[in-house]
Amino acid sequence: MGTQHVHAGWRAQDAHGAVVPPVYSSSAYAHPSHARLKALFARECDGFAYARSGNPTTRILEERVTALEGGAGAIAVASGQAATTIALCSLLAPGTHLVASERLYGGTTEFLDDTLADLSVATTTVDPWDLDAWAQAIRPETRVFLLESIANPGAELVDLDAVCALAHEHDIAVVVDSTLASPALYRPGDHGADLIVHSATKYLAGHGTTIAGLIVDTGRFDPRRRPERWPRLTAPNPRFGVTFADEYDQGCSGLLGYARAKYMTDFGATLPGQSAHTVLLGIETLDLRMERISAAAAELADWLREQDDVARVNHPSSPDRRDAEIAARDFPRGTSGVFSIDLEGGEGAVEAFCDALELFTLAVNLGDVRSLVCHPATTTHCHLTPAQRAACGVGDGTVRLTIGLEDLVDLREDLARGLRAARRVRAQGIVAV
Ligand SMILES: Cc1ncc(COP(=O)(O)O)c(C=O)c1O
């Protein structure tokens, strides 16, 4: 795997022998003839015309992530949010239905409840561990199951093989947001997923400099099996003059072609070449980072579990977790650097804890080489209802930690400082409980 992280998609093959993938920074691409540009617009040949639909540096990133996920193809887009939006809009026509895990990044839940609902797509949310709940939520118009392979912020893991087997019995496509896992820890396609979405802003980039997203087609989804369920892919498209599902013969379901031609281009949610370049640089060290970060997070979770001020540690290694078996079976290299803790004393204790930290940065990103901390109830999950927050394990006292590459001894010392501050505030009785 490490080899692919460094080499997939680029072999020093340009005119100058650039060792590192070069940044293409051009809004448009010149063509040798009228006939060639016409053929490109007619989808009769491959290439670049205008950067809103693709860029050569971005193409290298797409090929690299396709290789890492063992997929059939990928498109890189402007953000992780754009990846989810474009993937779901491509699969879900008005009047269709989606079943989603209730343990999702808050921005995704907001998108489902608000924007997707505006587009007349209904959502049912379920406890991702309850296979009967997934089954009971299925309607004739259900087209997609959506879940996170490692859920944000409590790092819950799902039995993806079982969920995919159920979905495929009903010709439902499974979309997995694998942002927290990254392909270095887990490949959803190996467990049956049809599409994978990534916020490449996080672990793929790893350096906290870039917003980016990817949609990967694992090659499993074939709309031609039940063409009447996916007419936008299986019927001739009058706007583009092609039937997108015919592109299955090139190893892809046609969905990516449709997503790129229609939604990425119409929404203008393009990834610039400069951003693709910085994500590519990050991926070179992904394999190394993920193993070390996961091990550090597991050690800190163990240590935090012994601290009196911590009511609960939400990490797959916790003895009371339902996903311990899944962690052992499907995540042999660890479960990333993200997990959460519940502090005694609610938001008042959280405020004292966060403000006392000197090494952890108070910021709403994750997957950086720097350790980060945030309070999901008032930030990433603040627009959810209290019931939705409770369903995804976010309470007033919940703090999300994202472990970086600093020395463990320093991180432990900083967390101890935060816990002491939280205890002092609690002792003074000035906390909101
Ligand atoms: C699991 C997950 N998916 C998607 C996103 C959205 O990604 P982006 O911020 O790159 O749009 C986030 C952002 O935090 C996330 O945590």
Key traits:
16 helices, 433 residues, globular, 2 domains, Aspartate Aminotransferase, domain 1, Aspartate Aminotransferase, domain 2, 5-stranded mixed sheet, alpha/beta, binds pyridoxal-5'-phosphate, 7-stranded mixed sheet
What is shown here, in short?
Its cofactor is pyridoxal 5'-phosphate. With 433 residues, this protein is of the alpha/beta class.
For the largest beta sheet, what order do the strands appear in spatially?
1-7-6-5-4-2-3
End-to-end separation in angstroms reads 47 Å
Radius of gyration: 22 Å
**Small-molecule binders:** pyridoxal-5'-phosphate
- How many beta-strand elements? 12
**Rounded average pLDDT:** 95
Helix content: 25-40%
At CATH level 2, the architecture of the largest domain is: 3-Layer(aba) Sandwich
CATH superfamily of the largest domain: Type I PLP-dependent aspartate aminotransferase-like (Major domain)
Any idea of the CATH topology of the largest domain?
Aspartate Aminotransferase, domain 2
Gross geometry: globular
Q: Report on the biggest sheet.
A: 7 strands, mixed
Order of helices and strands: HHHEHEHEHEHEHEEHHHHEHEHEEHEH
Number of domains: 2
- SS strand fraction: 5-15%
Given helix and strand content, the structural type is alpha/beta
Taking pLDDT < 50 over at least 5 consecutive residues as the criterion, the unreliable ranges are: none
